[in-house]
Amino acid sequence: MTGILRSGRLSASRVFAILVAIQSLLIAFGCPAESTAESESLAAWGQIVQVLRHPRCLNCHQLEQPLQGDSRRVHIPPVVRGPDNLGAGTMRCYNCHNDRNNEMARVPGAPNWSLAPASMLWEGKSDAELCELIKTPALYHDRFPDALLQHLAEDHVVLWAWHPGAGRAPIPVSHDDFVGLVKIWVAGGLACLNS
Amino acid sequence: MTSETTSSRGSGIARRTFLVAAGLIGGGLFVGAGVTAARLATIDRYRLPAGEGETSFGAWLKIARDGRIEVAVPHQEMGQGIYALAALLAAEGLRLPIEAVRPVQAPTNAPFANPTMLLDGLPFDEHVHGPLKDVAIWTLDELLRAFGLSATGGSTSTRNIAEPVRACCATMMDILTRAAAERFGVETDRLKISAGRISAPNGETASYAELAPEAAKLSPRAIPLSRLTAGTYVGKGAARADVPPKTEGGAPYGIDVRDKGQLYAAIRHSPRIGGTPAKAELRQQTPDIRGIVTGNDYVAVVATSYYKAVGALEQADISWNDDYALNISTKDVFAAYRAALDDAGYKSHFVLEHQGDVVASRGRIVKATYQAPYLAHVTMEPMNATALVTDKGATIWAGHQSSDLVKYRVAHAIGLSCDAIRVVTPFLGGGFGRRADVDYAVKAAEIAYHFKGTPVQTIWSRAEDIRNDYYRPAAMADVSGTLDDTGLPSGLRYRIAVPPVTDRFFGRVFAYAPQGWLPDRSTVDGAVFSFYGIKNRIIENLEVDLGIPVGFWRSVGHSLNNFFFETFVDELASAAAVEPIEYRARLLGAAGEGQASTRAANVLAKLAKRNLEQPLAGPEFGGKTGRGVALSECFHSFVGQMADVEVAGERIRVKQVFAVVDCGFCIDPPNVVAQVRSAINYGLSAALYERIDIENGKIVQENFDTYPVLTLADAPEIVVEIANSGADIGGVGEIGTPGIAPAVGNAVFAATGRRLRSLPLGLKTTIAPGSPVYACSSSRAWRRSLGRANLSRKCAAEKDRGACVPPAPRGSG
Amino acid sequence: MTTLNINGQKCDVSADPDSPLLWALRDDLAMTGTKFGCGRAFCGACTVHIDGEAARSCSILVRTAAGKCITTIEGLSGDVPAAVKAAWIEAQVPQCGYCQPGFVMAVTSVLMKNRDQTAGEVLSQITNICRCGTYDAIRAAVGIALKDLARRAQATPREGSQ
Questions:
Q1: Chain B: residue whose CA lies nearest to A93
Q2: DSSP string over B468-483
Q3: Which residue out of C127, C130, C138 would a mutagenesis test of the A interface target, given it has the greatest number of A Cβ atoms within 10 Å?
Q4: pLDDT tens string B740-789
Q5: What CA–CA distance (Å, rounded) separates B3 from B9?
Q6: Does the beta-carbon distance from B712 to C127 stay under 8 Å?
Q7: What is the C-alpha to C-alpha distance for residues A172 and A179, in angstroms, rounded to an integer?
Q8: Which tens digits make up the pLDDT trace of A77-128?
Q9: Which chain A residue has the Cα nearest residue C62?
Q10: Range of the domain at C140
């Protein structure tokens, strides 16, 4: 299923949206007898991970250099992480990025624009590995899962992914639905597939 | 092979052009006499306009009100240093310190001309001299001077003005000394000239400005010019007066014009080549948005600021009529080239050179096909022009490469006479040949026409600039050589499929210019009339034009043919199992004692010397290293280049380039070094990264992300040695560009055995190979992942951490 | 109206707060030393200093720059800018010159933060684009500027980087 979803972004987003709709319907109208909170949690994770792998998230969850655009090429002009995740030398993130998008320059922006911490890297990880990583309490200074929920629900750089500006595809599912999925995942016990 | 007949004797002139030349000579001799008379009425009689308190001397020099000397320059300053060079020659000729001379743009309504540029484009072998040919050239030179078309290009500015400026200086000094002699009542040979003053033996002295009123009454005498030799500045150089203002942000460019009440226009051209506007309506209606203008192939929104104009343009309801738009793509272009090359009867075909009998030469055959893409110019200052149009006339402020062309084309576009157009020329933020096509000035005038009485500045966004260029054409060439038993080529056939660039350029300038009657020598420059001793050779171009706009790009045809030709020479060397420098030495030896091959051999010898003294260094990034060479003759100058590369994976890193330059007598060596470095970097950027693609009639690339260029991180160290051969002054501005692509390609072959026959050379399309290293980065994982380029080893050492001061916290002032 | 602090002076600009600072400088204030090269923060021709750090004004919005110390090429002063400009002139760096104010701004910002770097360390932080390829001269100029600054530091005690 995930293979099919990965093969084409456009079809992936449509399938994804349909899945979420179906999931919501099932939840709203009562689930078949086999559904448990745990299997709901697992199903929710399957959709959450698609968002996490979307370019709007993945492009900044990189080791040393952010990526740009739906084509995901290396950031131009060249920038690196730097000692505090905010760039180095003359190329500090805030030397070009504002707290909002600059449409004339096509430069994205949000408050606290920066690379994600190096501890939050998941490119190339499988669904299960990523799942284990995301729910590592130490990453959240032991404020897990509140800190995760807060990050995904309120953090400006996350909200940006839904309003990324011209030329960048937003996350194909609504932010509210996404937050809802995260809550389901948490409520159902942070289910991860063992693979 | 071809049905077109050619002269098969070694005259180097194709039959059709021979007839043209004969006609010109015959008619020329008749016309020449009258033209000379006409010319004497023009530039030789022209005096620079002089206002109150000013005195002018001939067409070139003026004593200004502040006592400094102004030298009129009929060429535009685009970084090549022509303003500084004119000042240098004037300072030398007038025995003044360089600070006392100020270069200014020559008046636009003055009969300055640049015949050198047009003559260079004639399809004659410049190495072959003979009375008939010399008369033809002289006649054309007179004709072109009489026409008075001035332009900046073809690396001709210095060659064009050196003699006239020096002659004018000699005449002016003669007048001033005669005036001083009269004033002091002594013979001229008893006067002393020093630091801008002329002194009598008794101590009486006067500055040039003080002598000016008397001097103005004396008539000029032609003074025989001494040969150019080293002096105070000549042969040494002088500080450029434009450097401080350009460093401090005070130098004005076209885009910096700020007139009171000026409006701004944002322009958008048809996305597909050949499209026209179908509908253009504003959606924003605020007092700041002054209107929307529709042109032939563009739409423009005019507003009180550029930002507002861009916003309104984005919002506007615009659609295009694509009935006559192109729908071809890059692959169609190369397919058409391939088909033309394979077509024995291809009609639009010129033989530019035919020596000996290629068909009869026997031996081992070496063949290759080469190709190169369209290239954009990408001047740092995007296209722009400011125009103020009234019923009586127009003023155009713009960086350009010919004030005559601006005048002519703007006048034609808005229905005024040429004399009613005034052109104001600031510095150019890059020319490279793009600004010779003055469409940006025409469009600005057309737009300003709708706002008569108000200056309107039309700015092209970078995307508009890249997508509406006149590109260096793409080309494909089939080259084959037959090696004799000494391993040298006894026969060479060179066929290139390419559009006729010069024809297209003149077709844009003069609507009724006949097309296709003169072979375009520019498209085989770099292959034709080669200094190598190849007895039997045929150089032909097949004109294939699919409608993509093409124009002059730095070094023009040399940028294509030098890569194709010098890569092929390297392939011949490889086939003959001879080292590339030695092979070229043998090829030059086979040419005999001609001036061109001798100069090329001297340049090559210096490359050989460097090769021994500075052997190729070992790898720095775990790749394979290699060294490659290329020779070129470009605009009468000879350049040899040697590139050291390291190839790691799919990336080419050029570490160092050594260039030897014989540009004839070298007036300003430091500037020659700067220009050659500039041209090498420009050519290297194209060689490694640049390409313009077309998809369904639309240009794909649009900014520095999709059209990557060379940056500080990947620019090599370039060492330039000037070899003063004492020959006539050759061109300088473009001569470094052709040789770098083949030198690097040949180096890659030496390193890896992979022969690259197609540009750009990047084995994979990449952005700059070396990411800059930020000395303060503490991420070891990043440094490990880089594993290559430019790692500052000191970064790893703890003791150097202290040297890195963290950035000041944000918010502190 | 937005009030901007430019080169130590308060300037009122009517530019849209969501417009790039570059156009407020060039069009509202006719300060044309800061250049338009690409409009998308790729090339650095538009570099200014904001609170002492190099910033690309085609990307930084007027509202982001409000309330901060903006320095343009016209307003550079102090021993680091003086050394850099003198070095640029000694090395005869500019050819067409259009990109050079951006380079000067970038290099001065690096040296104003820390003048005890090697030329290589300084140059590795400069990502501006020059189409005239003046890179060799830029490398020479950075070396000259560092030597000059070191000499000044020896001659007089440093009051603080400026």
A1: B810
A2: T--BBPPEEEEEEEEE
A3: C127
A4: 999 999 999 999 999 999 999 975 433 333 333 332 223 333 333 333 22
A5: 17
A6: yes
A7: 13
A8: 999 999 999 999 899 999 999 999 999 999 999 999 999 999 899 888 999 8
A9: A98
A10: 79-155
CA dist B388 and B385 (Å) reads 10
Question: Helix, strand or coil for residue B301?
Answer: strand
Share of chain B above pLDDT 70, in %: 88
Distance CA B65, CA B535 (A): 62
Note whether A95 contacts C39, CB cutoff 8 Å: no
* Cβ pair B776:A88 closer than 8 A: yes
What single string gives the DSSP state of each residue in A129-142?
A: HHHHHHT-GGGGTT
User: Does some domain include residue A101?
Assistant: yes
Interface check B768 vs A, CB under 8 A? yes
One domain for residues C68 and C85: no
What domains can be seen in chain B, in order of their start residue? 42-114+149-248 (3.30.365.10), 254-325+383-459 (3.30.365.10), 331-361+471-752 (3.30.365.10), 771-813 (no CATH)
Q: Which domain holds residue A101?
A: 2-187
pTM of the model: 0.90
B208-215 vs B157-184: helix axis angle to the nearest 10? Answer: 80
Q: C116 and C63 in one domain? A: no
Contact B431, B679 (CB under 8 A): no
Helix H, strand E, coil C: the string for A8-26 is CHHHHHHHHHHHHHHHHHH
Determine whether the interchain pair C137/B264 forms a contact, defined as Cβ–Cβ distance below 8 Å: no
Q: Searching chain B, which residue's CA lies closest to the CA of residue C7?
A: B813
Peptide bond into A145 cis (omega under 30): yes
DSSP letter at C25 equals: I
Work out how many domains chain C is built from and give that number.
Answer: 2
Residue B241: Cβ within 10 Å count: 15
Measure in Å the smallest separation between the Cα of A76 and chain C Cα atoms: 6
For B30-91, strand residue ranges (E) read 55-57, 61-63, 69-73
The first and second tokens of residue A34, run together, are: 């086999």
For residue B466, what is the nearest residue in chain C, using CA coordinates?
A: C38
Q: Tell if the CB–CB gap between A89 and B774 is shorter than 8 Å.
A: yes
Looking up tokens 């392939």, which residue turns up? B571
**Residue A194, domain member (yes or no):** no
Q: Which chain A residues have any C-beta within 8 angstroms of a chain B C-beta?
A: 63-65, 68, 73-74, 76-78, 80-83, 88-89, 91-92, 94, 104, 118
Which residues, other chains included, contact B483 with Cβ-Cβ below 8 Å and sequence gap of 6+? B363, B364, B365, B366, B489, B490, B572, B575, B576
Distance from CA of B776 to the nearest CA of A (A): 7
Contact (CB<8Å) A81/B779: yes
Q: Which residue has the tokens 């550079």?
A: C76
Q: How far is CA B678 from CA B374, B415, B631, in A?
A: 21, 40, 18
Burial of B143 (0-12, 13-18, 19+ CB in 10 A): buried
Chain C residue with minimum CA distance to A99: C64
Among chain B residues, the shortest Cα distance to C32 is held by B256
Q: Which of C55, C58, C63 sits opposite A105 (nearest CB)?
A: C58
Look at A100 and C54 and tell me if their CB atoms are within 8 Å.
no
Subunits close to A (at least 3 CB pairs below 8 A): B, C
Chain C residues touching residue A96 (CB < 8 angstroms):
41, 55-56, 59-60
Contacts of A89 in chain C (CB under 8 A): 110, 124-125
Convert the pLDDT of each residue in A20-43 to its tens digit: 777 667 666 654 544 688 888 999
Total number of domains constituting chain A: 1
* Together in a domain, C56 and C92: no
Partner residues linked to B370 by β-bridges? B477
Task: Report if residue A192 sits inside a domain.
Answer: no
C38, C50, C60: which to substitute to probe chain A, counting the most A Cβ within 10 Å? C60
DSSP state of B633: E
